[in-house]
UniProtKB/TrEMBL annotation:
Gene3D superfamilies on file: TerB-like
Species per Swiss-Prot/TrEMBL record: Gloeothece verrucosa (strain PCC 7822) (Cyanothece sp. (strain PCC 7822))
CDD domains cross-referenced by the UniProt entry: terB_like
Domain of life: Bacteria
Protein name from the UniProt record: Co-chaperone DjlA N-terminal domain-containing protein
InterPro entries linked: TerB-like
Length: 146
């Protein structure tokens, strides 16, 4: 892990918690979502973090309200576009990992769009980026299933 990653570790951990919470948003973690979460934890050197391990154990579901609180804490009052896009990319990867979008997941993406820092300036630009990320992830998921 490089020094820049060390400095960002609390943010990365916060992001990881949001993504785990999003996996619970439809009430159950799908096998493909579980795989995505464990891979994300490994890639971000969080697989051995006690708090993340607790959430990955799936012993206690995370309520949607808790996920939304984490989401708003992560983005804060004035989120950067970089933080927003990283969150969007991580959540989209999770949501599309099983090739299906549940109603609760769509509502989460909808709420996320409202928190977009570019909403105040040009929501179309960021929405277009969101669509590009989602389309890319969806194509990847579909090509892996074929």
């Amino acid at each position: 892990m490089d020094s820049k990653q060390n400095l960002n570790q609390p943010r990365i951990k916060q992001l990881m918690k949001i993504v785990i919470g999003a996996a619970w948003i439809d009430g159950v973690i799908q096998p493909s979502e579980r795989e995505y979460l464990h891979r994300m934890a490994e890639e971000n050197a969080l697989a051995n973090d006690p708090e993340i391990q607790k959430y990955l154990s799936e012993l206690k579901p995370i309520k949607p309200a808790e996920c939304y609180v984490w989401l708003e804490e992560y983005l804060g009052e004035n989120p950067t576009e970089e933080d927003y896009l990283k969150l969007l990319e991580s959540l989209s990867g999770l949501i599309y990992s099983d090739g299906e979008v549940q109603t609760q997941e769509a509502l989460l993406l909808d709420k996320l769009q409202l928190l977009d820092p570019a909403n105040k300036e040009s929501s179309n630009k960021t929405f277009d980026k969101l669509l590009q990320v989602i389309q890319k992830l969806y194509r990847k998921a579909v090509s892996q299933k074929v």
